[in-house]
Amino acid sequence: LYERFPFMLRRLAMIYACASTLGGLNVVSKKQQIDNFETPQPQILKVHSLFWWPLRRRRNFQPKAVLTKSIKSMSLIDAAKTPTFWALYGIVILTASAGITAASIYKLFATASPVVALAGDQFLATTGALASLFNGIGRLGWASAVDAFGYKKTFTTLLIIQALNTAFYPVAARISPAAFMIATCIAYFLLGGIFSTSPTCCALAFGPESAALIYGALFSAFGIASISGVQLAKSLIPTLGWKSLYRALALTTLMAAPFIKLLNVPS
């Protein structure tokens, strides 16, 4: 695996270059779209997705729509003065620390587990590839769930699942390599949801005009979450072991629940 690592990097670079080129060619600035955005008529933020197709069989089911133009747009300074911004900032730190830490040290944890370590490097590489795929699927799935059910209900569900999966992670490593792989994929799936739902929450809470700028400021919370998770791992693993680390990360995830009630976003 390590001998082929340079070749793998070059191949991934070619794939990323092709994907970026195709994406760039499809970015088109249309004056009609800009005119529609600037009109005073309400713009409906509504995304149809295949992720809730089973619910469409229910009579009268429609994904929730949000009138973004009816939301008063705020500047970054005005948004920073609201409790919603800092509640969202705390939510990202408390929830992303578990996901980012699990994603960054899962290989180290696997080598410390007698059951998973016997599976070898190829198994860990496969686990990482599948987990990355689930991370992308999670971004689409959780963002679609916000459109269908609202941010608060969706994110509350996400953090409950993440707390359970994080607490169960050491147990999965003792059961079998397959259980460890599934738990890792779930962790990445949930981490994708944290990244994808935060921009939507910014648009819903602070309006669409400065949502990108506000999310840029909010993104620093992910950096704090990453640093705090690593420091927590360094302090707990040598003294109390891996199980204590994942229990602490599960606890920090649940600590984000009260902050959700402070968010002033459409339900």
Which structural class do you get from the secondary structure elements?
A: mainly alpha
Which strand-content bin applies to the residues?
under 5%
Oligomer status: single chain
Q: Which value, in Å, is the CA radius of gyration?
A: 20 Å
- Helicity range: over 70%
Shape: globular
Strand order of the largest sheet: 1-2
Distance between the termini: 48 Å
Query: In sequence order, what are the helices and strands, one letter per element?
Result: HHEEHHHHHHHHHH
The number of helical elements comes to: 12
Overall pLDDT level: 79
- Low-pLDDT residue spans: 32-53, 63-68
Query: Biggest β-sheet, characterized?
Result: 2 strands, antiparallel
Number of strands: 2
Indicate the topology.
Elements: H1 5-25, H2 31-38, E1 44-45, E2 66-67, H3 76-80, H4 83-112, H5 114-117, H6 121-149, H7 151-175, H8 177-206, H9 211-218, H10 220-240, H11 242-254, H12 257-261
Antiparallel strand pairs: 1-2
Helix pairs in contact: 4-7, 4-8, 4-10, 4-11, 6-7, 6-8, 7-8, 7-11, 8-9, 10-11
